[in-house]
Structures are given as C-alpha cells and as structure tokens.
Design goal:
The chain is α/β, with parallel strands linked by helices and 296 residues long. It has two domains: 156 residues, NAD(P)-binding Rossmann-like Domain (Rossmann fold); 76 residues, UDP-galactose 4-epimerase, domain 1. It has ten helices and twelve strands. The strands form three sheets. A seven-stranded parallel β-sheet has the order 3-2-1-4-5-6-10, sandwiched between helices. Helix 4 runs parallel beside helix 5. The longest helix is centred in the first third of the chain and has 22 residues. The protein is globular. The termini are far apart. The model has no long low-confidence stretch (mean pLDDT 92).
Length: 296
Amino acid sequence: MIKILITGAAGFTGVKACAYFLKEGYEVYGMVHKNTPKEEKIKFLSCDLMNHEEVEATLKSIKPHYVLHLAGQNHSGVSWDKPIPTFMANANGTLNLLEGVRLHSPQAKIIVVGSVIDFNPCYLTKPNHPYGLSKYVQTLLSSCWSTMFDLNIMIARPSNLIGPGPSNGICSLLAKKIALNERTSTSIEFHFHNLLDQRDFLDVRDAIKAYHTIFKYGKKNNSYTIASGNSKSLVDVVRVFKDLTPTNLMITTDFFQRVEPIRIDIKAIKLLGWEPQYTFNQSLRDSLNYHRGNFF
C-alpha cells in the first residue's frame, strides 16, 4: 500500500486531503503540530517542523512514498504582524521536511504547496506582503533542493481555496457570520478593504484532486498553478451569499476601486487531465451550509 504523509493535516485543506487519500486506498499519515486528532484509519502524529530532529525521526519511521506539504503560515494579514515567524514556518519548516525526505525517503514524490499570490519577480517590482515573499522563497528553495539533491519535488500553486470547512478565508468568514446571524435573526455587518478586489476562487475539493493528479502524472521540478481560471470580485461573493440567505447583509468598504486580477495560467495542470468540478456558487453554498450545521 502506498504511504502518504500529509503535513498540516489538521488544517482546512489537510483534513479533507487525509479523508480523500484514505478513500483512494492510501495509507495516510497526518502530521500535526499538536493536539493529535483521534481517527482510527488515519495515523495522526505530532511533529514540530521547526525541530529538524523531530522531522528526521518522523520521516525515518514512516518512509513515505508521497509527501503532501500543506503546513505553514498561510495568512497574508498575519504576515505583516509576524513576518519572521511566517518565514520560519514557510521556508525553514519546508527545508527541514525536505532534508528529512532526502535522508530517509529519497525516492518519495513530494508536492510543496505554494500560492498563486506569491511574489513573482517576473511581474512585480516588490512583494505585496511578507507572506507572498515567504512562499516565493519556499518554492525557490524547493526547486533548488530538487535540482541539487535529485529529489522528486513538484510545486503546486493554488489560488484562494473555498468550500465547506473551517477556514480563515474571507468567504468562510462571511459564511460563518451569516450562519450565526441566521440563528439570532439579526442583520450583519461585514467590512471589506476593497469590494472590487479581483480574486480567483477554487473549491478545496478540486484542489485536492489536482494534488492527486500531480502525484500520478506530474513531472519532477515542474510547477503547476491550480485555479478556476475565472476571477471574481468581492461584490460577486456578496451577491451569491445574498441569494442564499434571508439575513440582511450590511456591507461596508474602504475602497470601491477596480483592481486588475493577477495573471494565472493553468495550462500545465490541465494538460495532466485535471479540470475543476465545483462551481463558484456551489462552493459558497456548501461553505454556508457547513457553518449552519456547526452552530449548536
């Protein structure tokens, strides 16, 4: 049986990734920082990616065939307040993981999950935030490690992931607030920085299927952007939620200024046979229904 190690297994994507690969017949090991979940069929283990000795011991004991690296500090807003911890988590944590693989499971296929909003020096003159720079450094180091040490590393660059489950993303936060206020029969106020901000949203379940596709068909040291290919404004998000709830949404914004969407090219992942299955509306509906079911 193929063994897969999933870091960040307690996170928004990690929980679903563990369940998905278990269903696909893999022996799943879920790495978490602390508070190991209880699940009979998934082997959860506690490991601090900042501690290279812990990481090496974990890789030595498992010797996985696949490694899906989801762990890290994944919030751009937090990176402004905590830039050093963000770099430590996203860059140093990744290097510790890759070293553990190099020493104890060098034939493993590794997907390092970056971000579509990382800093790209080809298009930008300066980073938009410390998070984007940290993800650029993370993927650059991963690519170099692949070349220098002949590791089978591939890069995945997902866009803004949405869908059912707890997340710090703006769609999930709005869905959670709507669900709470539906129970109290009150109107809600939600503040945006810029309602015309353009983003590519992709269902987390489609992203996980893309990771599986990369494991099966991806090529060493290649980078795959995973996105819907369709930009939506935050106005579009609000409109969909307004159609899904009787709650009165009071929306405020600092700016109402159109922003050009970032350049996204998903040809590489489509050539592997992947296509997104969940619509934008369906993802938001499932997110809202998830939060409706999690208030007691």
